[in-house]
Amino acid sequence: MARHGGGRGWYGKVAGAALGVTVLATGASVWTAQAGTEGDPSPKATASATPGNDVKPVETTIAHASEAGARGVNITIDDGPDPRWTPQILDLLREYGVKATFCMVGTQAQAHPDLVKKVVAAGHRLCDHSVSHNTAMDKKPQSYQSQQILDAERMITEASGGVRPMYYRAPGGAFTPYSRQLAASRGMRPLGWNVDSKDFERPGANAIVATVERELHNGPTLLFHDAGGDRTQTVQALRRILPRLKEQGYAFGFPVH
C-alpha cells in the first residue's frame, strides 16, 4: 500500500503479534525510497528461502506496465487476505471477468490459507508484500529486509499449497536496490503502481472512483486494498470502476513479469 500518515493500528497489532515489529508510516512520496541498481552488491539471503530448484531470476526493475498492452489495466489488491473483504472482492472480480494480482502480507496469508487457495483457484496472481508490512523497510538492515521478503514468500507459498508469488511489492513502496535484487533472484518481479486509489483513507466511494479516473493517465497499475479496516468503500468503488473501464475499451491484465 502507499505510505499513508494514519490508519496504521491494524498493522501494528499484526506485526507486534507476529514479530514484535513496529509499523512505521511516513508521509514521504511513494517513489522517493527507490534507488538505482548500478553498483548494488549481490543479495545474500539471511532467511530460509522457499524450497525448489525451479526458480528463475527476473528483472530487478520495478514493473508498472501491463501484459495486456497499451490499453491494459492491472488491478492490484494489497494487504490481505481478509476473511470479510477478500471474498467480496473475489466475487466482484468473478462477476466482471477480471483477473487481479493480490499482494499478500505474510501473517495474513498464514492465518487464512483457505483464502489464499481461493485466490489461486480463481486464476489470480500472488505477490509477496512482506511479513509484517513495515513501511520503513528501506531504512532497515539487509538482514531484516531478507527475512521479511523470504519468510513472506515461504508463508504465502505454503498457504497456497505450493503456488509461489510472482511479484514483490515493498510496503509503502519502500524498495531498496538490495530488496529488488533479492526478490528478483527469487523470481519475484518488483511491483509498483501508477494509480493510488487512496481507498485506504476511506474518502468515500465517489472520491475513490474520481481518483482512479483522474489519475489513470499515469499508467495501468491500480492500487486497492482488501484488508486493514473497513473496505466497504473499496467494494462499492470497484463495482463502478470495473464495468466502466470495460466500457471504455480497457483490457484487464497482469503486470509484466
Model description:
The protein has 257 residues and is of the alpha/beta class. The protein has helices at 9-18, 85-95, 106-111, 113-121, 142-160, 177-185, 205-215, 232-247; strands spanning 72-78, 101-104, 125-128, 167-168, 189-190, 195-196, 221-225, 251-253. Strands 1, 2, 3, 4, 5, 6, 7 and 8 form an eight-stranded parallel β-sheet that branches. β6, α7 (205-215) and β7 form a beta-alpha-beta unit. α2 (85-95) runs parallel beside α8 (232-247), α4 (113-121) packs across α5 and α5 runs parallel beside α6 (177-185). The radius of gyration is 17 Å and the shape is globular. Mean pLDDT is 85; it is low at 3-52.
Task: Give the secondary structure arrangement, pairings included.
Layout: H1 9-18, E1 72-78, H2 85-95, E2 101-104, H3 106-111, H4 113-121, E3 125-128, H5 142-160, E4 167-168, H6 177-185, E5 189-190, E6 195-196, H7 205-215, E7 221-225, H8 232-247, E8 251-253
Parallel strand pairs: 1-2, 1-7, 1-8, 2-3, 3-4, 4-5, 6-7
Helix and strand content put the structural class at alpha/beta
The level of helicity is 25-40%
With helices defined by DSSP (H or I, 4 residues minimum), what is the helix count?
8
Rounded radius of gyration (Å): 17 Å
Average pLDDT taken over every residue: 85
Q: Number of DSSP strands?
A: 8
Give me the strand/helix succession.
HEHEHHEHEHEEHEHE
In the predicted model, the low-confidence regions spanning at least 5 consecutive residues are 3-52
Tell me the span between the first and last alpha carbons: 20 Å
Strand content: 5-15%
Q: Using the alpha-carbon principal axes, give the shape.
A: globular
The main β sheet shows up as:
8 strands, parallel
